[in-house]
Design goal:
Shape of chain B: globular
Strand content of chain A: 25-35%
Distance between the termini of chain A: 56 Å
Strand order of the largest sheet of chain B: 1-2-3-9-8-5
Largest interface: A-B, 18 and 12 residues
Mean pLDDT of chain B: 94
Number of helices of chain A: 8
CATH architecture of the largest domain in chain A: 2-Layer Sandwich
Number of domains of chain A: 3
Order of helices and strands of chain A: HEEHEEHEEEEHEEHEEEHEHHEEEEE
CATH topology of chain B: OB fold (Dihydrolipoamide Acetyltransferase, E2P)
Oligomer: heterodimer
CATH topology of the largest domain in chain A: Gyrase A, domain 2
Strand content of chain B: 25-35%
CATH class of the largest domain in chain A: Alpha Beta
Structural class of chain B: alpha+beta
Helix content of chain B: 10-25%
Structural class of chain A: alpha+beta
Low-confidence stretches of chain A: none
CATH class of chain B: Mainly Beta
């Protein structure tokens, strides 16, 4: 008997993706555009002007109350006390962190925005949202003055990225936009949105969070001003060039923040869950380390390809900006130095690669 | 090419490959169809097999890679590779731009010309896509 196809969720922009010629694929339970015109063209639009991504599949968790900060300090690897909120400007700070288990294994990587003295919004990966939410609620038991709520259905999210992104969004807004790693509410062409100076492309830009019913008009306004629709394909090539980790590839329950090169996002003195394991890993480094590489000559290494002498590629693609095979891999610590030559087994063919500093691409 | 096209003079394999048979030479030119290149997206790398390699009908003989993915190329006919399209090394996008012309992949000397009987004509292949 044939099984029924899984019921996929759709974002409020589903019809617009179809209109724009988007090719829709399943991603983490959602039906999302992987590309419109072509991955390389969308990628280059983000590098040279402005692309807009529908990232409404991402989840949100709101944490509020007098003990909200204390709860997040326990959950998140970074020092949440360092993210401030300016009451005069009504503007908060954004912070990247990891959500770890006691053993240091990574449950998710997150951005948290402070939206008020006792109000925080944490953006989760779609595939992890339910597990994150459960983990937040479990830990909230010890903080009766903190309230955790699932805000995922309350928001659509658009990432507007590229050197022209801020200029385009600014055309829709009479107030200045918040700076990089800051967030504030603004009215954009009549739509109330949280404007965040964050992204996942290695370019300047903003992410906009608004009510689902407002996403369509915001999308239209952005396209009318020159933003190019970009899909998950370009999102992946952009983040790989920028060496930004993807949960499920570079980050898993089996790996800790230190081997992933994310020690900078961990402040053990806060006593977060997993701090002990992270501290231990800092002093007694794990056997493997995440590196960036480029393939020398022909060939493209892909996720899952083994590295000779130990280790494995976690992400690999053809870089539209660098026009060569690029990627990230976990390799033994002694092979992690810049310039180290690697041999990667690409479906039975050995390809030479060389370890390069991260990021592989830096905005000009 | 932007529009789907399946020339009548070619034979097709259901795995989205085509063959152009040169009766006089006993050879066939092989490539991937419009549908295959459109599904893959922009081809960035074609890894050709060596001249002299034997290929077997219905088996993979090469790989084409787009930014997103790698895909096996299935041989529609058996034989020995006598030539590979060297032009694709510098310009693999020819596979997208001209899949039946400049984007051809290899030429084979057919070992069993009767195998062609199992291939599809353009109309049947087109039907298989809409099915």
């Amino acid at each position: 008997m044939p099984t029924a196809p899984p019921l996929l969720q759709r974002t409020p922009l589903f019809d617009r993706h179809r209109e724009a010629g988007g090719r829709l694929v399943e991603f983490a339970g959602w039906e999302m555009p992987v590309q419109y015109g072509g991955v390389a063209a969308e990628h280059l639009a983000v590098r040279t002007s402005c692309g807009v991504f529908d990232v409404s599949h991402m989840g949100e968790i709101e944490t509020t109350g007098p003990e909200a900060l204390q709860l997040l300090q326990r959950l998140l690897s970074n020092d949440v006390a360092r993210i401030g909120f300016d009451e005069g400007l009504q503007e908060g700070v954004a912070q990247y962190s990891l959500l770890c288990r006691e053993d240091g294994g990574v449950l998710d990587d997150l951005i948290t925005y402070r939206l008020g003295p006792e109000r925080f919004l944490t953006v989760t990966n779609a595939a992890n949202h339910e597990r994150d939410l459960e983990w937040f609620r479990e830990q909230a038991g010890a903080f009766p003055q903190a309230h955790v709520s699932d805000a995922a259905t309350g928001f659509a999210m658009l990432a507007v990225q590229g050197p022209a992104a801020r200029g385009i969004v600014q055309q829709l807004c009479s107030q200045p936009l918040p700076d990089r790693m800051r967030a504030a509410e603004r009215t954009l062409a009549g739509v109330r949105a949280l404007v965040c100076g964050t992204g996942y492309t290695g370019e300047d830009g903003v992410e906009l969070m608004c009510a689902p019913e407002d996403a369509g008009s915001l999308w239209d306004e952005l396209l009318a001003r020159g933003a190019v629709p970009a899909g998950l394909g370009a999102r992946d090539t952009l983040r790989i060039e920028a060496c930004l980790p993807l949960y499920g590839n570079e980050l898993t329950l089996q790996r800790g923040p230190i081997e992933a090169g994310l020690g900078w996002a961990c402040k053990e003195q806060t006593g977060f869950i997993g701090a002990g394991a992270v501290e231990h890993a800092r002093h007694d480094p794990p056997a493997e380390r995440l590196v960036a590489f480029v393939v020398e000559g022909q060939g493209i290494a892909r996720a899952g390809n083994p590295v000779q002498g130990g280790g494995e590629v976690t992400s690999g693609t053809h870089s539209p900006s660098l026009r060569e095979g690029v990627g990230m891999a976990y390799v033994p610590r002694e092979h992690a130095a810049e310039g180290t030559r690697l041999q990667i087994d690409v479906r039975g063919k050995m390809r030479a690669a060389v370890v390069r500093p991260k990021p592989l691409y830096r905005k000009g | 090419m932007a529009e789907a096209s399946y020339p009548d003079e070619l034979l097709y394999h259901a795995e989205h490959d085509w063959a152009r048979i040169d009766e006089g030479q006993g050879q066939a030119t092989l490539g991937i169809t419009w549908y295959a290149q459109d599904s893959l997206g922009e081809v960035v790398f074609f890894d050709p097999p060596a001249v002299g390699t034997a290929v077997t009908k219905d088996s993979s003989y090469a790989e084409v890679e787009s930014v997103k993915a790698v895909s096996d190329v299935i041989a529609p006919l058996s034989g020995e590779i006598v030539e590979v399209n060297e032009g694709l090394a510098d310009n693999p996008a020819l596979i997208n731009e001209d899949p039946y012309g400049g984007g051809w992949l290899v030429k084979v000397r057919m070992s069993d010309p009767a195998e062609r009987e199992a291939l599809l004509d353009a109309a049947s292949y087109r039907d298989s896509l809409s099915g």
